[in-house]
Amino acid sequence: MEFDLGWILLGLPLAFVLGWLASRFDLRQLRAENRRAPKAYFKGLNFLLNEQQDQAIDAFIEAVQNDPDTCELHFALGNLFRRRGEYDRAVRVHEHLLSRGDLEHSDRERAQHALALDFLKAGLLDRAEDALHRLEGTALEAQARLALLAIYERSRDWPRAAGIARKMHGADQGDFSTRQAHYLCEQALALTDLPAAQALLEQAIHAAPEAARARIELARLQRLMGQPDALLATLKTLAAHNPAALPLAAPLMVEAASATGRVAEVQELLQAHYAQAPSLDVLESIVLLETADEATRATARQRYVQHLDKERSLVATAKWLATEKLEHEEFHPQIERALEHAVKPLLRYRCAACGFEARRHFWQCPGCQTWDSYPARRVEEL
């Protein structure tokens, strides 16, 4: 059977035309897909800028479906889910990223960190801890350690928190000496063995000599152990190293002065501090010491009036009026109750980080969990 070359001559142009049409079709489809993907991406970005998170999520999902290999869209989508509180969906997005074999090393670390944050926000602390430990030795190690520190503080696991703080301090990731002192204080407060607690507090003082808490906690412990002389010595050291914290320790100094008989010495120290930085707590302690002495009892109340020359204080005014005789003495109880009600909010402490107010001083804010954010002065004095 003879082969007809005419078929070849006829087929070549036909094959060329069909190949050209196929390439044009693929090119059009690729262009259409590329147009759809950026359009969905920018649409999502616009919704996000307008704080329309539901619409932004829908747009990003559409963009991810058009281009499943785009890592940045997955990260954006996962972060949006986390911000909305849809932690299970955020976990699925980041786990999908980690399951990809073609993911670059840096993107894998980002996905691991994002997954840990998902677990942390969802309250799954054990899974978050495991995910964060996998970032040890990576570029995100410092961020992972900070998150681990938050986990251990939240669960009040002070020994492990201290271990992370030591690592970060040793790696020059910040000064964590004061934080380590707080952790040692927390461990000491949990002990019933007083000598062991004292040893931990002395370690805390050594870790952060300028921090106030360890010395104040040690003074309270020495009061429990019946050591007034040691208590007074500790508080005198506090006044030398951190005079701003003395208002917190002033009531303890009054107790130590009475127990040791060294009233004049304590009184002189408190008056010297008050002259430098007038404080309601220090003023109250001075008045208590002077009231206990008959020679100075009559003039002790005038301290409140003298304080008004330094600072306008409703608290000092109320304390002075409480001991004064008024012209219409029958109205004195009502006036005293009204003033007590008015000054109560002024006697609180306020967190400098979040504004959370409390009747007692905290070393770690119950609201924002920030350490050392409460000044040693009352709201009226700020």
Topology, element by element:
Elements: H1 5-49, H2 53-66, H3 71-83, H4 87-99, H5 105-122, H6 125-133, H7 141-154, H8 158-170, H9 177-189, H10 194-207, H11 213-224, H12 228-241, H13 246-260, H14 263-276, H15 280-291, H16 294-300, H17 302-310, H18 314-322, H19 332-343, E1 349-350, E2 357-358
Antiparallel strand pairs: 1-2
Helix pairs in contact: 1-2, 2-3, 3-4, 3-5, 4-5, 5-6, 6-7, 7-8, 8-9, 9-10, 10-11, 11-12, 11-13, 12-13, 13-14, 13-15, 14-15, 15-16, 17-18, 18-19
List keywords for this structure.
mainly alpha; Serine Threonine Protein Phosphatase 5, Tetratricopeptide repeat; 71% helix; cell inner membrane; two-stranded antiparallel ribbon; transmembrane helix; single chain; 382 residues; 19 helices; cell membrane; transmembrane
What's this, in brief?
Fe cation binds at residues 351, 354, 365, 368. With 382 residues, this protein is mostly helical.
Structure report:
The protein is an all-alpha fold. The chain has a domain at 69-169: Serine Threonine Protein Phosphatase 5, Tetratricopeptide repeat (Alpha Horseshoe). It is built from 19 helices and two strands. Helix 2 runs antiparallel to helix 3 and helix 14 (263-276) runs antiparallel to helix 15 (280-291).
